[in-house]
Design a protein that fits this description.
two-stranded parallel sheet, 459 residues, 3 domains, Fumarase C, Chain A, domain 2, Fumarase C, Chain B, domain 1
Length: 459
């Protein structure tokens, strides 16, 4: 047997420059479980179809199990003799069972092998990521339930806008993550397709039972076009997109934690165990976790763009460019999983400075919209009410008071529709209570959000 999987047609040994540049074993060793699981399923099917004997299949499957255990025990520290994970497993198989090991490659190519391995990997990682998203959602729901009733300013343009419940704010991130879960779950329908049996690009002359392999490996269906099956990386791109959107949501959350933990805001304190200090400024306490999540988000975006760029100019079918799918994929899974884990820990440990939040909600004319709606209730068209309240706010700014600091006579000088009951509309707590419609920031609405979330999470 040639030391390589393709040596028969060549008269010269590969140059070391080629071997170093061409090798992928340094990163695709991570696919050893998927490679061996796929090989075992293929082996059983070959025996079922009479292409291998039952005895041959049993020896091969036993040897494949030994190879997996050896990899996990660290036997293969020196990977330099191997071109890729397929090469390593086949070489190791021949070392154990001799020429029989060469038979396992019957009716398959590295092209459909790697497509299978990557699909199995993406499916497994997607399931793990969904679990981690759920853990972060649980942390958010727990903190929302613990802090029900705490008021803070809601913002637009990073300017104080209207009072909201802290719980409502936290549950906004639950909803973002809920969409992330839905995207990943939906993507599994396109991941869960068996490519094995497509061989290099045209299928095979052997009578294979692809459905049996699909059933053993948990695939919902088999691919319908062999050329597409070996050249498709849409499912990786979709995974990277889902990951990028999730990271964007984590980055937004991280950005708010960075802002809220600043002395200028002071809304939250990060526990010492989850913060770092400065090498020169002794007083510093730095929010490294949310900052790193922000930074890693750009990295995940880059991985998506990298593979999109790689794939955009490839003719059918397989091209070696596609080897470049794995490092962005592996890097994305590592960084997304790590980011979800640390953000769940951080959310669970944040100390909310409730008094600071509530004091901020009482300043900045956050109930101005309520005053406009009060006037609408008195029969004033909204556009007119908006203008009147704008002038009242300007008057309050000039006096240096909040709206509830104005006298009734002062407000009535702007509109004859204002009566003594206006003061019931000028406190943050009453503003929140009036927003009890489904999806609003009222207490009952937020309680319903939390209860729905707990049901979704099985809490």
């Amino acid at each position: 047997m040639s030391e390589r999987l393709w040596g028969g047609r060549f008269t010269q040994e590969p140059d070391q420059v080629l071997e170093a540049f061409n090798s992928s074993i340094g990163f695709d060793i991570r696919l050893y479980r998927e490679e061996i699981a796929g090989s075992m399923a293929h082996c059983r099917m070959l025996a079922k179809q009479g292409i291998l004997t039952e005895e041959e299949a049993a020896r091969l499957i036993e040897a494949l199990g030994q190879i997996q255990r050896d990899i996990e025990r660290g036997r293969y520290q020196d990977l330099s003799p191997y071109e890729d994970i397929h090469h390593l497993v086949e070489r190791a198989l021949v070392e154990r069972v001799g020429e029989l090991g060469e038979k396992l490659h019957t009716a398959r190519s590295r092209n459909d092998q790697v497509a299978l391995d990557v699909r199995l990997y993406v499916r497994g990682q997607t399931e793990q990521i969904i679990t981690l998203i759920r853990e972060l959602q649980k942390a958010l729901v727990k903190r929302a339930e613990e802090n029900l009733g705490v008021i803070l300013p809601g913002y637009t343009h990073l300017q104080r806008a209207q009072p909201v419940l802290l719980s409502h704010h936290l549950m906004a991130y639950f909803e973002m993550l809920q969409r992330d879960v839905a995207r990943f779950q939906d993507s599994l329908k396109r991941v869960n397709v068996l490519p094995l049996g497509s061989a290099a690009l045209a299928g095979t002359t052997f009578d294979l039972d692809r459905s049996a392999v699909a059933q053993e490996l948990g695939f919902a269906r088999v691919s319908q076009n062999s050329m597409d099956a070996v050249s498709d990386r849409d499912f990786v791109l979709e995974f990277l997109f889902c990951a990028a959107v999730t990271m964007m949501h984590l980055s937004r959350m991280g950005e708010e934690i960075v802002i809220w933990s600043s002395q200028e805001f002071g809304f939250v304190s990060i526990p010492d165990a989850l913060a770092t200090g400065s090498s020169i400024m002794p007083q510093k306490k730095n929010p490294d976790i949310p900052e790193l999540v922000r930074g890693k988000t750009g990295r995940v975006y880059g991985n998506l763009l990298s593979l999109l760029t790689t794939m955009k100019g490839l003719p059918l079918t397989y091209n070696k460019d596609m080897q470049e799918d794995k490092e962005p994929l592996f890097d994305t899974t590592d960084n997304l999983k790590a980011s979800l884990e640390v953000m769940a820990s951080l959310v669970g440990a944040l100390e909310f400075n409730k008094e600071v939040m509530e004091e901020a909600a009482g300043k900045g004319y956050l109930v101005a919209t309520d005053l406009a709606e009060y006037l609408v209730g008195k029969g004033v068209p909204f556009r007119k009410a908006h203008e009147v309240v704008g002038r009242i706010v300007l008057h309050a700014i000039e006096k240096g008071v909040e709206l509830d600091g104005l006298t009734l006579e002062e407000m009535q000088s702007f509109s004859r529709h204002i009566e003594e009951d206006v003061y019931e509309w000028l406190t943050p707590s009453r503003s929140i209570e009036r927003r009890s419609l489904e999806g609003g920031t009222g207490h009952q609405s937020v309680k319903m959000q939390i209860q729905r979330a707990k049901k979704e999470l099985g809490l």
